Amino acid sequence: MADVDLDARLDELFASESKEFTGARDALVRDLKANGRADEAAEVKALRKPTVAVAAVNRTARELPGEVPQLHGAGGSQR
Fold this sequence. Notes:
5 helices
């Protein structure tokens, strides 16, 4: 079996739609276990689906990276 590029797969996981998160996470866990990486599989299994707000920020950061500083500034002004 091919080795798992954990960083790339985690990036894909957090870029996925919310409804796909759990299935994608569990597939990554299976792949890690199949590659003898049980400790990493346990860490990935513990990841929870991002909240709607976090998913929106993630999406913005991926699709409009130039807007992140403004988003960060807006969040800071709400404190």
